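Long-time lurker. I teach an intro course on protein structure, and each term I like to show students one example going from raw sequence to a predicted 3D structure in C-alpha cell notation. This year I'd like something fresh instead of my usual example. Would anyone be willing to generate the C-alpha cells for the chain below so I can use it in lecture? Attribution to the forum is fine with me.
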Amino acid sequence: MREKLLFVTKGGKDFDNGFSYVAELARTLKADVSILMIYNRRVIDAYEDIMTAAVFAEAGEFHTAKDILHEKENELKAAAEQNLKELSITYGMSSDIDYHIRIGDVLSNLNEFQKNTPNINMILISPSLSKSKKEIDLNKLIKKISKPIVTISQPAQAGA
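-- Reply from a regular --
Happy to contribute to a lecture. Here you go:
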C-alpha cells in the first residue's frame, strides 16, 4: 500500500499555499495525496440569506428555505472543486490526488476525517492555517491527532 499524505488547507484564494512542498514530498515518497479544504462557517452564513430562508420557512415553503441556505455552500464547493482539479493538473498529480471539502472548524473536521480515513500517514498543515492561532490551535491538534503533523510556513521576506 502506498503512503498517503493529507494536506489540510483553508478554503479561499490562498488555498494552494504550501502545496508545492506537498507535491515534491509526494513524488519523493511515491505517495498519494488527499486534500482537505475547510471553509469557515461564517463565510457561508449571510444575514440576508438567513432572513430570506426564515420568511420562506414561516410561509411553509421549507424546501425553498433549505435550498436558499445550501445555495452558497454548493457554490463554494463547486468553485473549490474546480480549483482543486486545476491544482492537481498544475502539479501533474491528477491520478494521485483526491480532495474533500468541509465546512466548519478545522480541528473537528480534521479529527473526523482522520477517524474515517485511517490510512493517512502524515498530515501537512497549509501556511494559510498555521500562521494564525485563530485558525488552528496546534497544541489541541497534537493532542487529538495521532499521526505525524507538519506545519508548512511561508518563507520570510527579506527587508529592504
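Some talking points for your students: The first strand starts at residue 4 and ends at 10. Strands lie at 4-10, 32-39, 97-103, 122-125, 149-151.
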